[in-house]
Amino acid sequence: MSRINNLLTQLRGSLVIAWINGWLAMTRMPIWLVSSLTAPISIALMIIFFGGYRYLGIGLIGGISMLIGVNGVGLVGDGAFYRLELKFQNMLIATPLTPVSYTLGLGLSSLIYSMPGIAIMIGILAYRGIITPWNSAPIAASLFAEWLSTSMLGFTISTYLRDTRYAWAIGNILGFVLGTLFPVFYPATILPIPYIAIASPVSDASIVIQYVSGVARYNVDLPLAAATSLAAQATIFILLAIYKSRWRSN
Questions:
Q1: Whether the Cβ atoms of residue 213 and residue 195 lie closer than 8 Å to each other
Q2: Which of 30, 73, 187, 218 has the fewest beta carbons under 10 Å from its own?
Q3: What is the mean pLDDT of the chain?
Q4: Is a pLDDT exceeding 80 seen at residue 154?
Q5: Highest mean pLDDT among 35-39, 130-134, 246-250
Q6: Is 227 a member of any domain?
Q7: pLDDT reported for residue 1
Q8: Domain-embedded: residue 126
């Protein structure tokens, strides 16, 4: 019974953080809804414009994957700001909240800003028959694992930073590397060695979704490797957040 109560406490804490930092902030400053969509939508539109509507599916899938990944690693900036400037993390040390629950709350906060844009892109993909009831489960699982991986990675890095000026830059660089340099908006088979793509949780999710939705043709080995890598990275980054993040200030 105590474990159930503790689990409910952690869940409640995550939702409260997401409500305060995400929902309330979004309703007061809705301009952030537009701001969060600019990069992925711009890249997707360029791909569609130069390649034609046959690349609509892979462009929008890349947009969704990039948006979730960028929000996850963006916790480098958010986590450092709340810890160093607002001292919010220091206040939570005296509560039962764990680093993972705190990270989930911050991650949900960022995701709330992106949900309208993600919903629109998913709606277009569903309308065109790219996302169906039959492939929705692996797509949802891939996006969840990607969000979990990038959020835990972003938070863990944020706990080692001593100045918020570097935090935002590091978050932007990570978002660019994981969401743009790796094959997120294009098939992994373009690379000389396609398996290089499984090094990024963002491209892992994109490869799995491209495969199950049929917008890219892969041998089954590559999507399986991407799914395995994504699950492994989610597990590793959760463990890093639990055991290696600096929850208490030195």
A1: no
A2: 30
A3: 88
A4: yes
A5: 130-134
A6: yes
A7: 58
A8: yes
User: For 53, which DSSP code?
Assistant: G
Residues 154, 171 contacting (CB under 8 angstroms): yes
Q: Domain for residue 154, yes or no?
A: yes
User: Structural domain of residue 176, as residue ranges?
Assistant: 30-81+115-243
Give this prediction's pTM: 0.90
The pLDDT, as a whole number, for residue 194 is 94
What pLDDT sits at residue 95?
A: 82
pLDDT of residue 247: 79
Question: Rounded to the nearest 5 degrees, what angle is found at the Cα of 224, between the Cα atoms of 171 and 200?
Answer: 15
Beta strand segments in the chain, E: none
- Backbone phi and psi for residue 74, each to the nearest 5 degrees, phi listed first: -65, -15
Provide the greatest CA pair distance for the chain: 58
How many domains does the chain fold into?
1
Query: Structure tokens of 28?
Result: 């007061």
235 domain-assigned? yes
Query: In this predicted structure, what is the pLDDT of residue 53?
Result: 76
Contacts for 169 with CB less than 8 Å, ≥ 6 apart: none
How far apart CA 75 and CA 237 sit, in angstroms, is: 13
CA atoms within 13 A on the CB side of 138: 21
Cα–Cα distance measured from residue 52 to residue 45, given in angstroms and rounded to the nearest whole number:
10
